[in-house]
Amino acid sequence: MFTVPVLVLRTVRPMASFTPAFLLLLLTLMGGTRPSVSQSTDSADPKCHDWGNEGAVSVLEGKAAWLSCPLFSHPAVYNYSSTQSTGRNLFWYQIPEGQDLEQPIQQSSRFCKQRERLWVLPAEAEDSGQYICLLRNKSSCSTMAMHLKVLRRVQATPASSCEPSVATAPTRALIPLQEGKTLDCPDLKDAASMSDSSPTVNWSHKCNQLPFWNSDRQQRESSLRFYTMVDQYQGLYYCTVHFQRGGKQLNFTRAINVTAINPTRMSKTPVILHPYTDRVFHVKSNSRATLACQAKVPFVVEDPSWDVWWTVDGQTLEKLNDHRFSQSSRVLKDDHMDLTVENVLVIQDFQSEDLQRRFNCSVKNARGFESRRAVLEEEASLPSVELGCGLGVTLVLMLLLFVVYHVFWLELLLLYRSWFGTDERHTDEKDFDVYISYARNGEEEQFVLSTLRGVLENEFGYSVCIFDRDSLPGGTITDETLSFVARSRRLLVVVSPGYAARGSQALLELKAGLQGMALGGHLRVILVQFKPVQRQDLVRELRKAQVALALVRWRGDKSRELSSRFWKRLRVELPVRRGACKGEGASSTEGVLLRLTSQNSTNSQTGLISTA
Prior knowledge:
It contains 13 helices and 32 strands. It is α+β, with helices and mostly antiparallel strands. It has 5 domains: 4-151, Immunoglobulin-like (Sandwich); 171-261, Immunoglobulin-like (Sandwich), CATH 2.60.40.10; 271-378, Immunoglobulins (Immunoglobulin-like), CATH 2.60.40; 385-415; 422-611, Rossmann fold, CATH 3.40.50. Strands 3-10-9-5-6 form a 5-stranded mixed sheet, with no helix packed on it. Strands 11-18-17-13-14 form a 5-stranded mixed sheet, with helices on one face. It has a 5-stranded mixed sheet with strand order 20-27-26-22-23. The longest helix has 37 residues, at 384-420. The protein is elongated. Belongs to the interleukin-1 receptor family. This is Interleukin-1 receptor accessory protein.
């Protein structure tokens, strides 16, 4: 049979759109001698089967590149050796970027055919486009296309400014911790098959060229050897292959993403962490129920596949065909590719009949399988109305108690002290309940002698010590003052603008009280503000102690009534007196003796003054 060599054309439009006249014209222009394909003019010649497009190859401009015919990506269908034995020939065509017509690729210094590969040595920008490999003989014809994209260096963004640009995606290498592995540069064997001499390989990691300054990683010939893997060695490794072809110095760069995994000596059997044994899920009828399952899935290098799923009565949710059931998974933790996975089973509109079903969580990988049943228990429904009413009443009562306490807290505190407080007269050996210190001038002295003393002694039953009234004549003022203060349970300081002038009796009393309070804690100092005083007008001792002392303010006529806040606040600071009432202090023997002593002292001092 006489055959005429013609050029096979492919456009974006179907091939049937070309007319025979156009084919003859193209044949005439090409000279009819292109050895691309021999296509018979006989109508019995087979029609080419177009398998479409598969994949794309990216390469940097100026780097070596090659295309493998995708027809041979399925060895069970097409094998290069078997196709040669059946008389099939492989032809390559190119459709440049922006064009529609196929152009046959001829053997040249830049384009080299090697078995099922087409080498581009090196790639240039105009080489971008679609490449078609056609496999045919007299009885069959198949064609398939792939895309080549030549990137300029500015188009390829490296991981950092000091790392090389790579057009192809990084390959992955998994190395167990504390173990070793040897890395070979990808596509090195392909380069060796085309090189006129043995290729050389340069390795780099994080901008560092070999050697990496340690004995854990070393280059052995063209390979990179890891002796002991640690976390710091993870990351992108770059290998640049240099080889020579036809007098040209060519190279290409590949990237390997090195990832550390847990040592192989660790158990790789999957384990269910939750639900643990005897774990009970509480569910409610006619509501949404969720069952959570957590499992640890170790990574297996040989077969990394794994799964975590729920079954209902031994059936997966896909086979159950019940829209009420759904599940979702997420990874909770990734520990060197050993995963902790959570799978949540959601049951919409849970029914009481579902309690009789078997809910199992299962996990598997290449090394094992585990399944665990979830135990369900119906939760008793709470009386929402009764509970709401009870909570409402409780909230109202708490609010009322808060208001009552906020308004009547002094009365409540006094009531508590009267019931549960300790009477200090039975726990110490002191003679006086209160020692009053004040400025010796007309207004303050009148307030102390007529108001404070009268109410504390006559109304509340306290034993009160006033130096000018209770001291004996002829004694030393300092010794008497210190003795009275030490024998008192409280020191009541009446603060006014003229209080505690330097060298005064009041200053001595204040210092004695503060010293007794600081050293033994057996004496408490109470401040009664008779008149407003600026802080800068206070003596230094009083300014320092003011922040730690109780302060009760006298507000004039508002404070005269015994039911006023002043007297309640003062009673809180004074010692506890159970059943204190008017006249109680005078009825006791101790009170009588103290009053007689005070009266004698006053008379004696009056006589001395008169004599003088």
